[in-house]
Each structure stands twice: as C-alpha cells, then as structure tokens.
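Researcher: Next sequence.
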Amino acid sequence: MPELPEVQALVQDLGGRLDGRAIVRVDLAAFSALKTYDPPLSALEGTFVDGVSRHGKFLDIEAGGLHLVLHLARAGWIRWRDEVPRLPPKPSNRSPIAARVVLDDDSGLDITEAGTKKSLAMYVVRSPSDVEGIARLGPDPLADAFTPETLAEILAAAGRAQVKGVLRHQGTIAGIGNAYSDEVLHAARMSPFKPASGLTPQDVATLYAAIRDVLGAAVARSSGLAASELKGEKKSHLAVHGRAGQACPVCGDTVREVSFADSSLQYCPTCQTGGKPLADRRMSKLLK
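Model: Next structure:
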C-alpha cells in the first residue's frame, strides 16, 4: 500500500511531468472507482495542470480550478506512459487499469489496481476538503505543526488503544499505514500492542523521533525516483515489515508476525517485546 513517503515521491515525479500540461481527457475503465459525479469527469477535459500535492495518502492533481483526487488504497498505483494507446481502456475484470489520463502530446498516466479486491477511489471535486477522507485527516507527521506535544496529546486522547492502531488511524495521524507503523515501532523499540496512554514522556519522545526519522529517511531516499522505482526502493529498506521469518537487521533475532483477518504486523521480539513473542490471535483460534 502506498503510504506517505511513496505518495510524496509520486507528487514530486508527477509534478515535474504534469505541470502546465493540458488534460485532453480522462478515460474511466473501472466505474466503481469514481466516487463523485459533480463536477463530472469530463469537466477536466481541456484544463491545464496547475500542480500536484498530497493530503496524507491522498494524491491531488489540480487542474483548471478542479481537483482530481486519488486514494490508491491497498493495491493501487500510477504508471506513466510516454505514449498512450490510441484506444481507451475497456472495462474488464482482467485488466488492472482503473482510469487513464491522456495529455496533450499523447503521453499520460494509467491509474491501476492489482488484485480482485477493488478499493481504489477517484474524486473530482472543487476543493480537496470536499473529499470526506481528507476533511477528517489528522495532522501530517512531517509538518512543522506536528510537535512532540501534538503526539503526546494524541496518545493521551487514545486511552488504552494499542499504539500500532493509533499510528495507522488516518483521522489521528495522516499518512502512516501498516508498513511504516511497523517500521516506526521497530525503530522506537516499542511493542505494537503497548497502550497509548501507558507511554511515559520518554517513550513519547522516542516515538516522536522514530516517526520523524523513519518517514523523513524514506522520503529522502524516494526523492527524485520515478514511479516505476518506488515500490522496489520501499521494500529494500524495510527492517521488519514483510520480513517475517528473516533476521532482524539490528539484533539478528527472527522477525515474527501477528495475523489478523485482512492484515498482519511484523516485529522483532528482542528489539520490541523483551524477547517474548506476541500471541497470534488468528493462529490461536485455529489451534483450539
């Protein structure tokens, strides 16, 4: 799933490619992906791109006073084409293409989504705040306004909620998903199940530093990369996420996993839980 660093890199990459370019049309192949109807998708035709920006994990292409907002969800991505095919993409369950943006020199970009579970969302709005998901976003963790005091207030308000869930909740902190929450907690040497209200002032300071360091480093590494390179860059620098069964790069212990109905988390017992494996609730139920 694209998270803050990857979406920020897409902003930089697409910003350079799209700035001042005219949108000829937007071809929609997956009709369920478009979540708005006013303004219509056709309102983007003939408009010039004014800029590309990010709101949490939402990508925002501004053109002609309108905003084409994309949420790439779990398996969405952007594929740049130096030359788009002459025929528009056809609706098909077999094709990953959800939509195609065609530019004035026949270049463009495909908005794609892999897999059968379709969650990618597109919006055409007059203001980004017209998208409900953007309107209720929490603070951006890399913004100057996100201070240690801000994080302390968020954690105190979360009560006994597990810190992993607090980091992932977009209405609390914008842009951190499953992968980078694992990475942040590993860097902070903190259990994902630790209650938010149980963090000491030193814990909060450590967690804050980990958030800024992990996300900041990922943004720096991704800067200047094309969209086609971002997935590989992210995967190659993850310490624990997606590395269950492999050696922790810090201490050498085996990275463990806890599975849920539709996701999982990874952690290092030595670095994060005092050497004790966390209970995998799904596996426990299967063994009963």
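Model: The longest strand covers residues 49-55. DSSP finds nine helices and ten strands in the chain.
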